[in-house]
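Here is an idea for our session: we take a single protein and study its fold together. Once you have written the record down, we can walk along the chain together.
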Amino acid sequence: MAGTGTAHLRDGDPNVLVRVEDMVVEFSISSGTVHAVSGVSFDIVAGETLGIVGESGCGKSTTARAVIQMPRPTSGSVTFNGTDLTQLGNEELRKVRPDLQMIFQDPISSLNPRRTVSDIIGEGLRVWGARGQWTSDRLDELMEAVGIDPRFGERKPHQFSGGQCQRISIARALVLDPKVIICDEPVSALDVSVQAQILNLLEDMKQRYGVSLVFISHDLSVIKNISDRVMVMYMGKVCEVAGADDLFARPAHHYTRALMASIPGSKAVVEASMIEGELPSAINPPTGCRFNTRCPAATDICRSEEPTIEAVGGDHYVACHHPATETPVTVES
């Protein structure tokens, strides 16, 4: 599993907006080095939603934040619109950031409690001026677009529900007409009924304004519904990349199949779908394939050699020495 390689990158596609290649993010702590992201590569086409999924601690949030250089990667490249962001100085990077916005996991704590909603949404315009279709005179229209009554613009975040605060966060992200929005588990803190509303709103905003989304979640059902393409991660490595329908119909990686078998209502046809054991330490990750300590199909080669990402058919790629070929897990949604 969890390997490196760039076979899944869409070389030559003029619509590729973001290209991340061999990105590494490490953090030094007193007991050693945390290998948060290790050689991850992916790309995003204009207007596409890339879903990044994996269990807690797999590096998906760090990967997405490193795209906008928060934090800056330890090594590797992040190319946006033909410019390698890792090579930019602070001021040059600041000028690019309006095109790369973020929606955070906790909608309430991500909003300044002392500012009014109108101030929060319009802050970007006061800093940068009008960069696209939105101006200070059209904030009411933007609020209406995300489902917030403009009459409540003078209220503060604590006067809104969690779902309403997330709508405010979406408006704040849209106001500068960004090309890419990073959605870091934007619905995990919300009730199920509110989750559906926010997901529908994000899909509507994507279609209406042509933005690309990087959608991070540990919830496969959410990922399936919103993503065009999905990247599965484990311990800072890429396991599998495929179109959403293809991935859920024919998961080839044993870790992907285990994740899908854990979805309530799924039918795990293959006994090997279940994994056991503890997640290894990110300070001292296993050699070879990082999943080898928990994989039911692991052999000696998995413990000694890291797999590379290879095509298993069409636009479906997997990093595994022994990709699954049995009847795939089927998921009821």
Q: What stands out?
A: DSSP finds ten helices and twelve strands in the chain. Residues 192-209 form the longest helix (18 residues). Confidence is low (pLDDT under 50) at residues 269-273. The first strand starts at residue 16 and ends at 29.
